[in-house]
Amino acid sequence: MLVGMTWHIMTFERVVQGEDGPKIELQVHVHVLDGDENADSFTDAALIMSSLEVYAKSHPTVTQVELRSDNGRYAGLVAKLLSLLLAF
Fold first, then answer.
1. What mean pLDDT is reported for the chain?
2. What is the rounded distance in angstroms from the CA atom of residue 4 to the CA atom of residue 35?
3. What 3 state SS string does the chain have?
4. For the whole model, what pTM was predicted?
5. Which of 41, 46, 51, 61 gives 20 to 30 Å between its CA and that of 84?
6. Number of domains the chain contains
């Protein structure tokens, strides 16, 4: 167990055409932060932006993503992500 560490997992899924028909391609990004403090929503947003940049570089034909979260901080993250995107 990761005691004293905050971790984030992002997965990217997309359907690609394989030789035997459509297949699901999956890419997983894991961030582990060392420290006793919980990450705030700005940290969450920065980690999402980092993963999106890495994914976009390796998949330039992907032009849209759908964000989903497993906890209640999702609504706050959307506002933070928009502010980060506007800063670019």
1. 78
2. 6
3. CCCCEEEEEEEEEEEEEECCEEEEEEEEEEEEEECCCCCCHHHHHHHHHHHHHHHHHHCCCCCCCCCCCCCCCHHHHHHHHHHHHHHC
4. 0.68
5. 61
6. 1
